[in-house]
């Protein structure tokens, strides 16, 4: 068994798609209408057959409350691995990304946290 899709709640799918592709650099893999929403998945540009990130609409009260509360507590919704946190931090700052935590070394990992503008905090990690 392996993880093939991981989802993240987003407030607006189009806004999230733009941020995750144009700002972060993910690649759209699927964009299929499903009722009033869409099944939108993204992959790393380095691994088109890797784990997909599903941009899941937060269209129900439980999802909205969960997203709101973990954001308020400063808890990242997910974590992305990067080769060099400091380099990625500088690239994203230049792209207008707002960080809530600058690169910080914590034992064997270095991490930073940013606001995805879609209701989530995202952590980037270098092992």
Could you walk me through the main structural features you see in this protein, from its secondary elements to its overall organization?
It is a single chain. The protein has a single domain (5-126), classed as Roll (2,3-Dihydroxybiphenyl 1,2-Dioxygenase, domain 1). A hairpin with a 2-residue loop joins strand 6 and strand 7. With 127 residues, the protein is of the alpha/beta class. The mean pLDDT is 97. The strands form 2 sheets. It has a 4-stranded mixed beta sheet with strand order 1-4-3-2. It has a 4-stranded mixed beta sheet with strand order 5-8-7-6. It has helices at 13-23, 61-72, 85-94, and strands at 5-10, 27-34, 37-43, 52-57, 78-81, 98-106, 109-115, 121-126.
Per-chain topology:
Blueprint lengths: L4 E6 L2 H11 L3 E8 L2 E7 L8 E6 L3 H12 L5 E4 L3 H10 L3 E9 L2 E7 L5 E6 L1
Parallel strand pairs: 1-4, 5-8
Antiparallel strand pairs: 2-3, 3-4, 6-7, 7-8
Spell out the key features of this protein.
VOC family protein; Glyas_Fos-R_dOase_dom; alpha/beta; 2,3-Dihydroxybiphenyl 1,2-Dioxygenase, domain 1; 127 residues; single chain; Glyas_Bleomycin-R_OHBP_Dase; VOC_core; four-stranded mixed β-sheet
Order of helices and strands: EHEEEHEHEEE
The gross shape turns out to be: globular
Structural class: alpha/beta
User: How many H/I helices?
Assistant: 3
Protein name: VOC family protein
InterPro entries: Glyas_Bleomycin-R_OHBP_Dase (IPR029068), Glyas_Fos-R_dOase_dom (IPR004360), VOC_core (IPR037523)
Domain VOC: 1-127
Organism: Chengkuizengella axinellae
